[in-house]
Amino acid sequence: MRPPRVAAPLLLAACLALLADALTRDTGGQFGMNLPVWVGVFMIATLTVLQKAGQKASRQGLVLLGSALGLACLFVVRDAPPTLKFLNFTAFLLALTLGAATLRFPDFHLSNVLPMLGTALTGVIHPLIGPFVLLERFPWQKLTLPASASKGWVTGALLTLPVLAVFGGLLARADPAFAHLFTGLLKWEPGDLFTRAFTLLLWGALAGGLVYSALLASGPVGHGAKGEKFARLGLTELGLPLGSLAGLFIVFLLVQLPYLLSGTLPDGLTFAGYIRRGFGELMTVAFLTLALLLGAHGLARPDLRRNAAYRALNLAVLAPLTLVILSAANRWHLYHQAYGLSETRLLGAAFLVWIVACLGWLAYLLWRGDLRRFAYPALLLGFMTLWVTTMLNPAALIARNNVHRQTAAVTNDLRRTPQRANVWELLNLGADAVPDIVRNLDTLVPGCADQACPNRQDIINRLHDDYDAPRDPRAWNASYARAHHLVRQLPPPTPHERGYSD
């Protein structure tokens, strides 16, 4: 069924595109206060349009849009390390897309993984088709004006131009600031005009896609679908691969057991190699096992899902997997003992927490024989994990931990000599690490004559380069503002060419 001809969606998308351009223009691509402001306006506007149309917003859509707003607020409160910032922005786009797509459909639930993936993929396509649908569904015939009215508009516009030109020129001569604004409006470089037009088109596509999803689209992928077309495998077909995987886990644990108990490793394997190589692979194993069990349940016959043998088969996979995850956690602990904290290690710990929570939820639903409620809570758990991880201030946590390891001269069985904190790596973590760097500036400068060693003035120069300029108020960020205030109190940068490297 084609959407009705209404003016509100196109007008709303146009206003949102102009607002996005106004909030981000000349900010250097930085996100801060502008991101939650735009999301808040989008939510209020779409909910208002739905209410006037007599439609009720779904609870699921509201929760997802609220999650998007919460993730957007992270860009105001924290200046997260680069990889975590990318994950936060990706999660924000996913929550915004899914929330807009499900806002008008209270009877649709993102309970299964495939409908959720399909809805997310169509959300990527909607910015390409949504604006054209909004244009096509706009009631253009209502804008037709009588000939006399059209003539009046043209005449009025022609009379307006000389009035603005004359009085604007006089006012420009009276005030330099107004003259700069007035002449800036009249000067258009072809390159600037093209860039501005392309940026507006980009924002228009994004806003049009979201508005189309929220107000006009026929429904998310899988909406109204009935039946399970692929549920056809029996216990034998599923038992062989799952039983083999359980056996593989058990063999792996038996091989690990001797040096987990004794603390000694096989010949040719060092603790550094053991802990470096193992954690990522074991986390991948846990994630793929989660996907495999979900797929097996989706392919199983409905009558098999509550069968005791099938439940025992899932338990046979999950029980040794629990010990595999404990082995991964042990490797993470050893890695931290040997090398301290880094962004990758901290994100690995966050992923470990999320995968354990998802596997626990999966085990509970598998035992009940019904996975229809798995995907949506798992998605919200992912958003919550990212939100909590960012709010814990990982950059400051990493800087504080590594500086403490240096000042306390931490040694253990895995590290015979104290570890020095790498100040350039700490600087790359973002503004949240700056307070600890400034507080421990003398500690971070080693007492060595080697030119490769960081110089105190080089660090100060780098801090001034990164945080001297105040941010645009539209992209205001609390962590950057705090770092800017601290850096302005440091000695001035050297005027000559900087010699540091990161």
Walk me through the structure.
It holds the Pfam family DUF4153. Keywords: Membrane, Signal, Transmembrane, Transmembrane helix. This is DUF4153 domain-containing protein. The protein is an all-alpha fold and 502 residues long. The protein folds into four domains: 162 residues, no CATH class; 35 residues, no CATH class; 158 residues, no CATH class; 68 residues, no CATH class. The chain is 70% helix and 0% strand. It has 19 helices and no strands. α10 runs parallel beside α12 and α12 packs antiparallel against α13. The protein starts with 7 loop residues before the first helix and ends in a 14-residue tail after the last helix. The model has no long low-confidence stretch (mean pLDDT 83).
From the alpha-carbon coordinates, what is the Rg to the nearest angstrom? 29 Å
Main sheet, how many strands, which sense, barrel? none
Mean pLDDT: 83
Structural class category: mainly alpha
How many helices in DSSP terms?
19
Strand content: under 5%
Q: How many β-strand runs?
A: 0
Helix content: 55-70%
